[in-house]
User: Fold this.
Amino acid sequence: MKPAPFDYVRPGSLEDALAALSGDPGAKVLAGGQSLVPLLSMRLAAPSRLVDINGLPGLDEVTVSPGGVRVGALARHADVLTHEEAARVQPLLRLALSHVAHATIRNRGTTVGSIVHADSAAELPMVLTLLGGSVEVVGPSGTRTIPASELYVGPLESSLAHDEIATSASFPALAPGGRVAFAEIARRHGDYALVGAAALVEGGTVKVGYVSVSDVPVVVDLSGVPVKDLGEAALARLEPAGDIHATAAYRAQLVRVLTERVVREATGDE
Ligand SMILES: Cc1cc2nc3c(=O)[nH]c(=O)nc-3n(C[C@H](O)[C@H](O)[C@H](O)COP(=O)(O)OP(=O)(O)OC[C@H]3O[C@@H](n4cnc5c(N)ncnc54)[C@H](O)[C@@H]3O)c2cc1C
Assistant:
């Protein structure tokens, strides 16, 4: 199908981009287009204007410090996936990104776009939530930082206002001695996960984040739970739903299996 008609602007500065957004309540940001363009083509979205941010300077960098990894809004999934320093400081990024779509989509789609698109079937919103990261946002009244815990408010819905632009996402570093693990089951490698899980074992705590089990990214604290009880302890806090891709019972079974798998791997109890 073809998209409904829309205006298209490609501003050269953040100020012009913000003006283009605030001047039209029906406007939408276009980053990599790997989620938005299919939605336009299927007419599931019909914005009056696309504000293409690909001409904005200084937003394509991945910056690594001892405290973590900062990913600019125009850094592509592939830029983050192949960034050696980022993988060393926070290895969960590479583990999760290797499951995001296929190379052509990773070359164009942005990590920040995925995070603000707020799909709980996507890997990066869960990673940001599990790690306790945040998103930096610019709007008409200035800049603000939104913690992941306040970012996801419903299915495909973030707390960004329509006239705000996310400029970067920040992922905390893995603590010394910390370990992470990631696993997912998809019909084919690169497809959205039927269920995915990531474990973060740090400073005596064990947390697991889930993909495709709820409307928003969800994390459960499983610290101190014996290995044999991990699956049921996780399910006591989750309500996996069924859809055309998997029944609720099948998703529950995947939660059991993947929870135990990632916690065993991250704790070294394999
Ligand atoms: C065939 C296919 C398979 C895929 N498989 C997976 C998968 O397995 N896992 C996965 O996680 N993803 C998958 N994706 C999605 C992909 O990762 C996208 O890149 C990502 O969801 C969106 O990033 P984008 O830069 O393309 O955003 P766009 O499509 O440009 O935008 C998506 C939404 O976010 C908003 N937005 C984007 N950037 C900003 C910003 N800086 N500030 C404010 N709003 C912004 C847009 O307005 C829009 O609402 C798949 C996509 C396709 C086409």
Q: What stands out?
A: The chain has ten helices and 14 strands. The chain has a mean pLDDT of 96. Residues 185 and 193 are 6 Å apart (CA to CA). The longest strand covers residues 165-172.
